[in-house]
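Q: For a teaching handout, I want to show students what a protein-ligand complex looks like in token form. Below are the inputs, and the small molecule is magnesium ion. Please produce the holo structure.
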Amino acid sequence: MYDVLVVGELNVDIILNRIDGFPEVGKEKLSKDLRVVLGSSSAIFASNLATLGAQVAFVGKIGKDQFGQLVETSLKQKGVGTQFLVHTNDHQTGATVVLNYDMDRAMVTYPGAMEHLTEKEVRNDILTEARHLHVSSVFLQPNLKKNLVQLMERAKSFGLTTSLDPQWDPAEQWDLNLQELLPVVDVFLPNRSELKHLTKTNSVHHGIDAIKDFANIVAVKDGENGAILYHDGETIRKPAYLNKEVADCIGAGDSFDAGFISQYIQGKDLQTCLDFANLVGAVNTTEAGGTAAFQDLNKVKSIAKERFSFSI
Ligand SMILES: Nc1ncnc2c1ncn2[C@@H]1O[C@H](COP(=O)(O)OP(=O)(O)O)[C@@H](O)[C@H]1O
Ligand SMILES: [Mg+2]
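A: Here is the structure, written as tokens, with magnesium ion included.
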């Protein structure tokens, strides 16, 4: 039995560092450092939630290729259950080429297999192995998105609680029927900008107003300002555990989600969930990338203590 089943996108990141100039069509540049690692914000969420002590399994679609093997091995190393991964012959595993220039990055993504995961492939016998379902990155998974309401309904019919991080829409269409979807989502976890786009409003306040009649718990990530939670007519704001020496913010939102859900599944009150989410988001920002600060629970505990005076 798993605490949390994560349904999300899976890809490798091919990261080129120390590149001598910008790419130009018809020319060749050299990079002095290459890393091929597990990418995907759903994978960061799953890995860090496992490090925080939850039993986590993943449902995602990968190709029967070497990148797929890398994804699977990396998830296993992080303690995430991989037996429900869907392997396909029809598409290659997704990959993102990341060109790193100091603090800025240029990225090109081939979504591949992730685009083809369907709601049906998250079978009932998989759902019944978990207590909570977390879905992330819906705009990268159009086939899943089509029947997302049915997936959430099915999970709830088996007694699971549910959460959703919509993540960014690369097409910037923001086509998601929140009125239909949010009643079957227990915890909705957009960031500030995603909430505004999804609700076609110009502030978090108005965004929450637009969904409060049919949403359950809404936790909005607001970068270095912390987060805002709405539930049952009440709004809670919590400032961030401000990190003035940020390594980078890659994965901060996913780690925030992991912190929140790690407490939520233990039945903790919403103040505690939100506070811990902010802490885990802050811990994420102390090292480069989304998982470096989460090698093991002791490391997380010591960062929390030394950098943010927080005892886990
Ligand atoms: N500079 C920072 N110091 C401390 N915590 C931060 C900082 N930036 C982000 N966080 C934490 O990470 C969370 C998620 O960041 P945010 O950038 O809003 O999400 P996303 O990664 O989804 O865009 C924030 O709500 C906050 O708790
Ligand atoms: Mg995010």
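A: Two things your students might notice: The pocket of magnesium ion (ligand 2) is lined by residues 41, 167, 191, 253 (CB under 6 Å). The longest helix spans residues 270-284.
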